[in-house]
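The pair is quoted verbatim as follows:
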Amino acid sequence: MDVDVAVVGRIRPGRTVRTQSRPPLVVGGTGERAAVVTALLGGAGLADLAEAADAHAGGKRSSVLKPGPEAARKRRGVVRSRTDDWEDVDDIYLEGYTRGFFGVEPDLIADVRNPAILLFEGREYDLTWENGDGGTHNIAIRDENREVVDGLGTRTMRDRGETQTLEFEATSEMHEYLCEPHPASMLGYFKVVD
């Protein structure tokens, strides 16, 4: 497993330091090897992070690690992709939590919070989302003036695991998708191309 980390400093053996990263990552020095004490980094196991620490430290010093630029881009919903990557996509699947919509499918948005989604104007899409936390959520597609486009909004629901699907033809006025009860945290953007 690849772990996206960056060396940000040194610590003395036996000392534990908490980084400023989100999620937090704590690394403790144990002589020749950097040992991960606590890791709250999506999906990365302790062994993976300890291995990454050793690789960055060259096995000779202890290092404080934090999620690197790729992890930060994922948290902000930035997806590095080309237009061609979206050519065969017409089904989009998200999971909704109060802290954001998280990409499930296609793979290029997997685990990305509030992913930017590329749409081709005139193409038909199914945008399905699942309530991941049992909070009161919905999904709506709005234009740049924050008006719902062509009635593309769902009713609110609060049952964990319940799904809703919006079926639509992409138009140039589609600017964003959001949960109306949580617009500050559950908001992502569309890019519509010809």
Observations:
- Confidence is low (pLDDT under 50) at residues 1-54, 59-76.
- The domain at 79-193 is CATH 2.60.40.420 (Immunoglobulin-like).
- Residues 25 and 39 are 5 Å apart (CA to CA).
